[in-house]
């Protein structure tokens, strides 16, 4: 009885190795997330963006943009362009909640433009 189980496990291992070596399709490179639309460059009222930040973002990203539960934003404009910032704020993802519906379109656009200047 033991030899039947051992043979079954051995055959399953051989089948798995064969499938891994010869049958799996090649891994496709994941395309970077492309924003669906361009975000207009608008003049930003820094004081109002700071107020929105303090009300909605500071709890996760820190009072000095240093990061806390969320990543640091002190140089986020070097890593993400305005469109990606807009998408992240609006749709969330990776632990960040979506702010579409909580913030107005103008507020999200303003935050994206404001954060893009953090370089």
From TrEMBL:
InterPro entries reported for this sequence: Cyt_c-like_dom, Cyt_c-like_dom_sf, Cyt_C_IC, Cytochrome_c550/c551-like
Chain ranges of the Cytochrome c domain: 44-119
Protein name, as recorded: Cytochrome c
Pfam families: Cytochrome_CBB3
Highest classification ranks of the organism: Bacteria, Bacillati, Bacillota, Bacilli, Bacillales
Gene Ontology molecular function: electron transfer activity; heme binding; iron ion binding
Coiled coil location: none
Keywords: Electron transport, Heme, Iron, Metal-binding, Transport
């Amino acid at each position: 009885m033991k030899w039947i189980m051992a043979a079954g496990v051995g055959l399953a291992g051989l089948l798995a190795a064969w499938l891994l070596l010869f049958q799996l399709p090649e891994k496709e490179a994941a395309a970077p997330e492309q924003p669906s639309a361009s975000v207009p460059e608008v003049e930003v009222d820094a004081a109002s963006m700071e107020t929105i930040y303090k009300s909605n973002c500071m709890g996760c990203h820190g009072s000095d943009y240093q990061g806390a539960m969320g990543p640091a934003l002190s140089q986020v404009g070097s890593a993400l362009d305005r469109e990606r910032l807009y998408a992240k704020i609006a749709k969330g993802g990776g632990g960040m909640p979506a702010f579409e519906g909580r913030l107005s379109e103008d507020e999200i656009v303003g935050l994206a433009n404001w954060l893009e200047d953090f370089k």
